[in-house]
Write a structure and sequence with these properties.
- This protein starts with a strand and ends in a 12-residue tail after the last strand.
- Strand 8 and strand 9 form a beta hairpin.
- The longest helix has 13 residues.
- With 283 residues, it is α+β, with helices and mostly antiparallel strands.
Length: 283
């Protein structure tokens, strides 16, 4: 069995997230079927699933999801790349395929992940008042599945100030949603470690969008979407940057803001320790 590292980009609009779910279209299930078609291996209950760096929720997109999978098929990397992209729907593209050592695992080997959240600002926070306010911007139907069409005017400066306060190592329990799958699997255990380190946390305006970029050692269930929901509450004046330390200290989901919609979120990049490539290895 050869160990493969794949990098995927996908439009999550039509998928019920990454993880296989009976009777529902998922990225993992679609990739598994394509791998079976390409290698000529029938799918059974014992067929190993391709392992992603983490699960993305229904509607979430990926620019650089990393997958590890073991295949018992002699095929050169470029041939596998072409064959998979022919077998997969256009919403999923394999950007690269390489042989790696058996020690590499897409989820267990992660050093850090980077996400991006895109907000379409329908209203201008700098507008002087309702009488002279410019008309709301219209979000194109070709953009709407990939951004949060936010109805509130957002003040950027306090959001940027708050984003900076998130940097460093914190207990992010207040920004974690309960994960029913993990709860069932880890019954009797304490669950995932809520202490994470954020290395970057920035907000910028670019080409008509407000973009939040965050890189961290790991992320809890819905954590990025809950961070964005809280930052938008700060941007619209429902909270202030000074509320963030209190929210973190509370370790209580109800202390933070709402969960931002899934379709504005992108998994951008996953970083790993150096892994010896086996490219050129004879199979």
């Amino acid at each position: 069995m050869a160990n493969w590292k794949l990098i995927l980009s996908y439009d999550g609009t039509a998928f019920n997230g990454w993880q296989v779910q009976p009777g529902l279209p998922t990225v993992q299930g679609t990739l598994q079927q394509a791998l079976a078609n390409v290698t000529g291996t029938p799918l059974t209950v014992d067929t190993p699933l391709p392992q992603g760096s983490g699960r993305t929720d229904s509607g979430v997109h990926a620019l650089g999801q990393v997958v590890s999978v073991q295949l018992d098929a002699p095929i050169p990397p470029q041939n596998l790349l072409r064959a998979l992209n022919s077998a997969l729907p256009p919403a999923i593209r394999v950007l690269s395929a390489e042989l790696v050592s058996d020690t590499f695992h897409a989820r267990h080997s992660v050093l850090r992940k980077s996400y991006e959240y895109r907000i379409f600002e329908r209203r201008d926070a700098e507008s002087p008042g309702p009488e002279s306010r410019t008309p709301d911007r219209i979000c194109s139907p070709f953009l709407a599945p990939y951004v949060w069409d936010c109805r509130w005017p957002l003040a950027l400066e306090p959001m940027q100030q708050a984003a900076t306060l998130l940097l460093g190592t914190h207990d992010f329990t207040s920004f974690a949603a309960a994960d029913p799958d993990l709860s069932a699997r880890n019954s009797g255990s304490s669950g995932p470690n809520p202490v994470k380190t954020l290395y970057t946390s920035t907000l910028t305006r670019e080409q008509g969008l407000l973009i939040y970029r965050v890189t961290g050692s790991g992320f809890l269930h819905h954590m990025v979407r809950n961070l964005v929901g809280t930052l938008t509450d700060i941007g619209r004046g429902a909270l202030t940057p000074e509320d963030l330390p209190r929210i973190l200290e509370a370790r209580d989901r109800s202390a933070a803001g709402p969960t931002a919609p899934a379709h504005g979120l992108y998994l951008v990049q996953v970083d790993y320790p150096p892994t010896p490539s086996l490219e050129g290895t004879s199979l």
